């Protein structure tokens, strides 16, 4: 995806997600859900978690 010119870290997306969650505050931070071995999902879960 990034090609040969990309020199960023392997955790770039994780850092951005952490910053987004921090800006959203505790009340809304759970809208960004971690899907293990896949990535992230935005939105409320069906179970209200």
TrEMBL record:
Segments forming domain OmpR/PhoB-type: 1-44
Gene Ontology MF, one: DNA binding
A Pfam family per the record: Trans_reg_C
Coiled coil: none
Record InterPro entries: OmpR/PhoB-type_DNA-bd, Sig_transdc_resp-reg_C-effctor, WH-like_DNA-bd_sf
Keyword Amino-acid biosynthesis attached: no
Keyword Hydrolase on entry: no
Keywords: DNA-binding
GO biological process, one term: phosphorelay signal transduction system
Listed name of the protein: Unannotated protein
Organism: freshwater metagenome
Lineage: unclassified sequences, metagenomes, ecological metagenomes
């Amino acid at each position: 995806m990034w090609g040969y010119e990309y020199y960023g870290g392997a955790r770039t997306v994780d850092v951005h997600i952490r910053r987004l969650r921090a800006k959203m505050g505790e009340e809304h931070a759970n809208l960004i859900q971690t899907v293990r071995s896949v990535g992230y999902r935005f939105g409320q879960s069906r179970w209200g978690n």
